Amino acid sequence: MAAQDRIGLDIGYSTTKAVVLSQSETPPRLISLGHIASPLPGMMSESELDLQAVAAAVKDLMREINPPTKDVVIALPEQKIFTRVVYDLPFLTDDELSQAIRYAAEEFVPMPITEVNLYYQVIFRSPKKDINSRTVVFVIAAPKALIDKYLKIVQWANLKVVAIETEMIAAARSLVSYNSYSPTTLLIQMGATNTDFAIVSDGLILLTRSIATGGAALTRAIAQSFNFEMVQAEEYKKVYGLLEDQLEGKLFKTLKPVIEVMANEAKRVILAHETQNRQRPVKRTVLTGGGAHLPGLVSFFTNFLGLEVQEADPWASINMDPGMKTKLSSEAAFYSIAVGLALKQD
Fold first, then answer.
1. Which of 41, 31, 36 is nearest to 64 (CA)?
2. Residue 206, CA distances (Å) to 181, 281, 287 in order
3. Which of 182, 237, 270, 299 would you call most buried, defined as having the most Cβ atoms within 10 angstroms of its Cβ?
4. DSSP state, 183?
5. CB of 13 within 8 A of CB of 192?
6. Which residue has the higher pLDDT, 323 or 303?
């Protein structure tokens, strides 16, 4: 039986977000939510003292949102795990597949397989075994040390982990409707230190990629170009963003090279996907994460990619007070992962 209430806990490098949903109703109802600054160096550190500081921040956040449960679903960051869609497997039974995945993972996991936990999802399997049959599998390898780190923090915060998944799986759950009318979608998750990409089609993740360029790189570019302190640079980024008609276009020219790194990677992801899946061309892009609300960003990606581009709205299928939905509209993309985690069923 599925839990009625669940906390989606997104422990980020710069901010930790939490969303509490009641799944006893259809659609699920928002109970509470909140966010708190993550202490530095936080998750980037291996020091127990630093990780205890993260746990203390999580406890402070829980006191603020006062959830009616201690059950949490957490996400592992894309840049710290290893994922791959394996296309070249023959027809395999379930027993054969589990052994084949281990060998396949050795080709893309840059550490001993004994040090990771392997998970996989069958995307496609031919109905019968013949010379042309094949099996396509989405594989995730998560370092055991990384999982242990997150479990420690949640335990120190007096919470109970009921599930662990990747950030992109959670974001896809909250942002892409799984029906035959939903187009193949490129998700672009813009975090503070990284930008993550995923192709989602028919409820399945067909490709993922992560680059070490995020919102902090944009802020640094403004600070260096205008000789601002980081706090002032962050404010200018949030207010003016990529609007060419503001500040004589100077801020646009400063940010454009960094945004183009992300946009060019998006093009490469689309090309890599469509090379393997010509029958599932990408029709839409959804921008999510803390950086998705940057002014002018949707227009920039629309022109650059030549696709429909929209800002994420994880609240579309959540029951809440209309006034609350309006209030949260500017922060919608910020909570995409946390909402997706709280939506996870048993």
1. 36
2. 17, 12, 18
3. 237
4. P
5. yes
6. 303
Does 25 map to a domain? no
- CB 9 within 8 Å of CB 189: no
**pLDDT for the residue numbered 3:** 57
Please report, rounded to a whole number, the percentage of residues in the chain having pLDDT higher than 90.
80
pTM above 0.85, yes or no: yes
Q: Is residue 74 part of a domain?
A: no
Query: Is residue 287 in some structural domain?
Result: yes
Q: Are residues 136 and 244 in the same domain?
A: no
Got the DSSP string for 190-251?
A: E-SS-EEEEEEETTEEEEEEEES--HHHHHHHHHHHHT--HHHHHHHHHHHTT-TTSGGGHH
In angstroms, the CA 138 to CA 119 distance is 8
Give CA–CA dist 68/26, Å, rounded. 19
**Which whole number is the average pLDDT over 223-236?**
96
Provide the token pair at 114.
């004994």
Tokens of 126: 């031919």
Q: Which domain holds residue 123?
A: 80-143
What's the angle, vertex CA 118, arms to CA 129 and CA 262, rounded to 5? 100
Q: Do both 238 and 310 map to the same domain?
A: yes
Indicate the pLDDT class of residue 273, thresholds 50, 70 and 90: very high
Q: What is the pLDDT of residues 28-43, one digit of tens each?
A: 999 999 999 999 999 9
DSSP letter (8 states) at residue 14: S
Nearest to 196 by CA among 166, 173, 220: 166
CA angle 261, 267, 273 (to 5 degrees): 135
In angstroms, rounded to a whole number, what is the distance separating the alpha carbons of residues 104 and 88? 10
